[in-house]
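Structure catalogue
Derive tokens from sequence
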Amino acid sequence: MEDSKHTSDKLTSRRRFVASTTAAAGAATAASQMPVELFANVAGSDEIKVGMIGCGGRNSGAIIQNLNANDSARLVAVAEAFADKIDGTGPRGSGLPVIQKNLEKAGKGKQIDVPESRQFAGLDAYKHVVDQADLICIATPPGFRPIHFDYAVKAGKHVFMEKPVCVDAEGFNKVIAAAKEADQKNLKVVVGLQRHCQDSYLQSYAKYQEGMIGEIRSAQAYWVGSRPWTIERQAGWTEMEFQVRNWQQFQWLSGDHNTEQHVHNLDVINWFVSGDPIMGGNPISAQGTGSRTDESPKIGEIFNSHWIEYRYGPEHNNVIMNSQARQTKGTWRRVGEEIIGTEGIMDPGKGMVTDLKGKPIWQYRKPRSGAVNPKQAEHDKLYDAILNDKPQNDAYFGAKSSFTAVLGRLASYTGQNVKWDEAVASNFSLLPEEFAWDAEPPVLPNGEGIYDVAIPGKRPLPWKA
């Protein structure tokens, strides 16, 4: 594969992909045998080289926040599946022109230096960026994130990775294994579950720890709203390209709406119920239902409505969480959480606690000055850990919260009561066997362009199919 942004114009055969992967993997393996101190010590450097994998809207914002967090950071390389997402000419494009403009507007134009020779396009372009940088920002379609995270850790790089971090059991297990390797190498990892850096949530958690609501008995989690963007199929696109461009509409790429967005709310409940903001916690089972309504079956194959009952184990007081995730126009909207304790009810997003009869007993007050955007705070936290050698690894709770969402999706699609341990042990994968533009993705439309949609009670669990 050519080292230029024009490489996506060419089809990548499995043989070429495997050959380039093998060559890059050899370098990563050699790096993994180097002393740990050589990986994590960028504190003494005058410059921190930042690489960006994924040039969509989220990473275009995250990279600005990353560079804002440290004046010595410099964006030096970018990777994207599509060249037109790097230069901003494609559908929903933002890319380097927007990043450059925003940095110059903020007086930080000198923090970007990405000549065409360090702009890489294609499904294996991420390897080139990892080789160029000290810190990697990953915001690709979620199905790819375990692969990208694992490669970055093996190469000894610090990582900011967007949520969710996996869409299946194989991805979950890969992220957990890479998290352990990151600890061994003293690498710092932040996952984009920014409620962990949001003041109202942090103060709510402190009030919970003080006993304000007593012991948690149950919880509600919501992400109900409208359908996100889609991109119309264009002449000349292969099926693989159509799906990767419309990644939100396919399970193997997004994990479904329950995983891609609702993970934020599920993460909050895991955090509060477990009482562990570092390792996090997880339910032991999930059951529920879901459906696909008010959508063209030619757009994709995911559900747009879920209702899931999650149950936690005895070590977490057998808490029950009811979860609602929906993407349907014209319906009631709410994004947030409600935690019911023996002494009160908490809405951590609003920073509010009432007694069991609804009388307010605490209200978070936003500071008049000094409040930090929680997404910015994530990157501030990452650089603080790197430069001051503080422990920092969000990958554990990030993986558990992501797989909590996956567990719910499995339950709603199949109509079964799905056990956490069984699902993890299955190591099931949704990913295609080949990563190439001319390869077949895991799901295909019929002759009329319609995708098969799951029917609860008829679709088996992936490891029982």
Residues 196-377+402-464 form a domain with the Dihydrodipicolinate Reductase; domain 2 fold (CATH 3.30.360.10). The longest strand covers residues 216-225.
